[in-house]
């Protein structure tokens, strides 16, 4: 065999193969699977374990709140598309499901089963018209030697409904032991979940109807008749069984109580349940500080940041990239779906990054890249790290990009300010004639102090003359 392998690899390839050689074997190996791999009844665990319920709900509800946007790629840039058809579809996936519900159920399904499936119903142009979430426990993947996935079977009521591969969008987590299905976190948490469930059941039974008195033995030392023995058992269970929790008083010294049960303190019950809680939450990526009653404000903030950065955001990236790969091609090329980057930023690190970029970028580039601000007429020049034209707040979030002290830049900036004042004046005069207030005027070129003075003056302007006098005062302040 060694010689055979040596001869095989001696003929080295000078180009890549057009197809992976193992795909056919993988499909053939999995073709005998008629159902997805069974877990430990994930739905029942979700319903019966409070910590699994808390963990999955915290992840699913937080993820459903984050908006998903569609961008068009232009080189390295991403250009946002307002009201893209996919965004409109996701806002109302089908007549029975809202956007929040769709993503809540999708993320929850991934956490419960390791898989989530969208069925796409098309319109006359072949584009998705509706999105329906499929129950993962009813879906079976049909492997194919050439296409990898031939399609899907949806089983309900003993009937198997075939679904084409193009009609189904399959989200899945990584499974090290399966080529087609994802791995549920509940499978990894099985021991902790079952232990916590048994401890909860034991605690309930301890205070149940038949366990009012801890486990023990009533030892009758002297011989008694069967009639007296049955009477004694009946009286004991009647007076001291159930939830009565009363102290037993016995006449005579021939009968004694011997306690053989373990109390909650002996078992360190509360610590045990807390350990199970922490293990379950850690498996799902929920920092304990988010749910601990002893967490300080600082610990809670750190826990929230860890949850967003290490748990929630990667799950959103998984969903967005799958949508980009399999759903957005229905609408054309060069499209990508992305969630808003919700990861908290380090203010000090961001400030250092901005300071490092001073010599390399112009003012408009700094405004666009770091503060998502529109360009200004005087912003196409670069500044040095020590230039008085730029100052950044200590927290790295606020910026004051002052105009450069050159004659050309001064004139351009003054012209831009005067034009913006004229636009603002027309905007304010037109809004006087309308009942509704509408959106505010967006200031881009005016200095902050002047913009504040104009805004404050307009608060008390009730007619056209008073509005004009506010802007006349602003122009006078420019000279």
Task: List its salient traits.
479 residues, alpha+beta, 4 domains, three-stranded antiparallel β-sheet, 16 helices
How would you characterize this protein structure?
- It is a single chain.
- The protein is extended, with a radius of gyration of 35 Å.
- It has a 3-stranded antiparallel β-sheet.
- It folds into 4 domains: 17-211 and 272-344, no CATH class; 216-260; 347-405, no CATH class; 409-478, no CATH class.
- It has helices at residues 2-10, 23-30, 42-48, 50-64, 85-91, 99-113, 185-188, 190-206, 226-240, 269-284, 297-326, 347-357, 363-371, 407-432, 448-459, 464-478; strands at 68-74, 77-80, 115-122, 128-134, 139-144, 148-156, 159-164, 168-172, 216-220, 255-259, 335-339, 390-392, 399-401.
- Residues 249-253 and 384-405 have low confidence and may be disordered.
- With 479 residues, the chain is α+β, with helices and mostly antiparallel strands.
- It contains 16 helices and 13 strands.
In short:
The protein has 479 residues and is of the alpha+beta class.
Layout of SSEs?
Elements: H1 2-10, H2 23-30, H3 42-48, H4 50-64, E1 68-74, E2 77-80, H5 85-91, H6 99-113, E3 115-122, E4 128-134, E5 139-144, E6 148-156, E7 159-164, E8 168-172, H7 185-188, H8 190-206, E9 216-220, H9 226-240, E10 255-259, H10 269-284, H11 297-326, E11 335-339, H12 347-357, H13 363-371, E12 390-392, E13 399-401, H14 407-432, H15 448-459, H16 464-478
Antiparallel strand pairs: 1-2, 1-11, 3-4, 3-8, 5-6, 6-7, 9-10, 12-13
């Amino acid at each position: 065999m060694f010689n055979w392998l040596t001869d095989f690899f001696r003929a080295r390839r000078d180009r890549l193969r057009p197809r992976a050689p193992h795909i056919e074997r993988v499909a053939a190996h999995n073709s005998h699977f008629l159902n997805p791999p069974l877990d430990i009844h994930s739905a029942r665990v979700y319903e019966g374990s409070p910590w699994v319920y808390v963990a999955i709900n915290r992840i699913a509800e937080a993820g459903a709140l984050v908006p998903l946007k569609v961008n068009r790629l232009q080189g390295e840039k991403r250009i946002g598309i307002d009201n893209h058809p996919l965004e409109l579809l996701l806002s109302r996936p089908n007549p029975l499901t809202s956007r929040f519900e769709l993503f809540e159920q999708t993320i929850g399904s991934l956490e419960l089963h390791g898989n989530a499936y969208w069925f796409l119903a098309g319109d006359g142009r072949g584009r998705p018209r509706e999105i329906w979430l499929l129950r993962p426990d009813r879906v079976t993947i049909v492997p194919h030697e050439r296409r990898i996935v031939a399609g899907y079977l949806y089983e309900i009521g003993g009937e198997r409904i075939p679904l084409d591969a193009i009609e189904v969008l399959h989200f899945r987590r990584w499974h090290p032991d399966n080529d087609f299905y994802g791995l549920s976190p509940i499978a990894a948490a099985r021991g902790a979940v079952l232990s916590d469930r048994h401890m909860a059941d034991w605690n309930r039974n301890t205070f149940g109807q038949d366990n009012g008195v801890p486990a023990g033995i009533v030892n009758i030392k002297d011989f008694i008749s069967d009639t007296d023995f049955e009477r004694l058992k009946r009286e004991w269970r009647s007076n001291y069984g159930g939830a009565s929790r009363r102290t037993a008083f016995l006449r005579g010294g021939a009968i004694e109580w011997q306690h053989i049960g373990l109390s909650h303190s002996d078992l360190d019950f509360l610590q045990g349940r807390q350990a199970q809680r922490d293990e379950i939450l850690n498996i799902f990526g929920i920092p304990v500080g988010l749910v601990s009653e002893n967490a300080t404000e600082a610990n809670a903030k750190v826990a929230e940041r860890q949850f967003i950065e290490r748990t929630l955001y990667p799950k959103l990236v998984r969903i967005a990239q799958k949508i980009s790969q399999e759903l957005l091609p229905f609408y054309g090329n060069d499209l990508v779906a992305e969630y808003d980057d919700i990861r908290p930023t380090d203010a000090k690190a961001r400030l250092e990054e901005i300071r490092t970029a001073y010599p390399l970028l112009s003012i408009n580039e700094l405004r666009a890249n770091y503060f998502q601000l529109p360009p200004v007429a005087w912003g196409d020049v670069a500044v040095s790290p020590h230039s008085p034209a730029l100052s950044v707040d200590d927290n790295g979030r606020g910026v004051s990009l002052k105009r450069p002290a050159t004659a050309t830049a001064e004139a351009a900036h003054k012209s831009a300010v005067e034009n913006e004042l004229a636009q603002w004046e027309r905007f304010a005069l037109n809004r006087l004639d309308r009942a509704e207030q509408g959106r505010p005027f967006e200031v881009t070129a005016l200095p902050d102090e002047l913009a504040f003075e104009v805004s404050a003056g307009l608060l008390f302007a009730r007619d056209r003359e008073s509005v004009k006098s506010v802007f006349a005062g602003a122009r006078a302040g420019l000279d």
